[in-house]
Amino acid sequence: MNATATLTPRRFRPGFWTAVFVVLFLAFCTVTVIRFSKGLGAVTHLSDRFPWGLWIGFDLLCGVGLAAGAFTLTAVVHLFNLKKFEPIVRPTILTGFLGYAFVIVALLLDLGQPWRIWHAIIYWNPHSVMFEVAWCVMLYTTVLAVEFSPVVFERFGFHAPARLIHRLITPLVIIGVILSTLHQSSLGTLYLIVPSKLHPLWYSPMLPLHFYISAIGAGIGMVILESYLSGRAFHRHLEMDLLEPLARGMVVALGIYGLMRIQAIHRNHAFGSILGFSYEGTMFLLEFTLGVILPVILMSFRRLRTDPNWLVGGAFMAVLGFVMNRLNVSITGMEAASGVRYIPSIMEIIVSVGLVATGMAVFAFAVRNFSIFPDGPVSSTQELEEGA
Question: Which end of the chain has less neighbouring CB within 10 Å, N or C?
Answer without folding.
Answer: N
